[in-house]
């Protein structure tokens, strides 16, 4: 069982940066792949990024590639999403997820956080 709590959301200006964190409970955090998704009003949930259990492999949506970076610190049971060059279209609730890498990327992970709001003003 894994419980996930996101933090770090807020208001940023276009071109600015934010760093999201997702803290996980449970002793088996390092065995899970982790991912970030976002849900904007009127849109479907969108995959943003994922990272393998070791951190050795990362995956990104084309819309965020070269702007966002996912990383993890298994000693702190935390995964991060560094978001740079933010755009108004990045505005959404961001959720972290945990499971195997395939299910995370597919959006069918077993474990999800409650979400954190990111708002980017133009």
List keywords for this structure.
11 strands; single chain; 122 residues; 4-stranded antiparallel beta sheet
Characterize the structure shown.
There is one protein chain. This protein is mainly beta and 122 residues long. The strands form two sheets. Strands 2, 4, 5, 6, 9, 10 and 11 form a seven-stranded mixed β-sheet that branches. The chain has a four-stranded antiparallel β-sheet with strand order 1-3-8-7, with no helix packed on it. A hairpin with a 6-residue loop joins strand 5 and strand 6. The model has no long low-confidence stretch (mean pLDDT 96).
Give the strand content: over 45%
Characterize the quaternary organization of these chains. single chain
The helical percent reads: under 10%
Instruction: Give the beta-strand count.
Output: 11
Secondary-structure element series: EEEEEEEEEHEE
User: Which class best fits the helix and strand makeup?
Assistant: mainly beta
Basic shape: globular
Residue-averaged pLDDT, rounded? Answer: 96
Spans of at least 5 consecutive residues with low confidence: none
Q: How would you summarize the topology of this molecule?
A:
Elements: E1 4-7, E2 10-13, E3 18-24, E4 33-39, E5 46-51, E6 58-60, E7 68-73, E8 78-83, E9 92-99, H1 101-106, E10 111-112, E11 116-121
Parallel strand pairs: 2-11
Antiparallel strand pairs: 1-3, 3-8, 4-5, 4-9, 5-6, 7-8, 9-10, 9-11
What would a concise description of this structure say?
This protein is mainly beta and 122 residues long. It is built from one helix and eleven strands, in the order E-E-E-E-E-E-E-E-E-H-E-E.
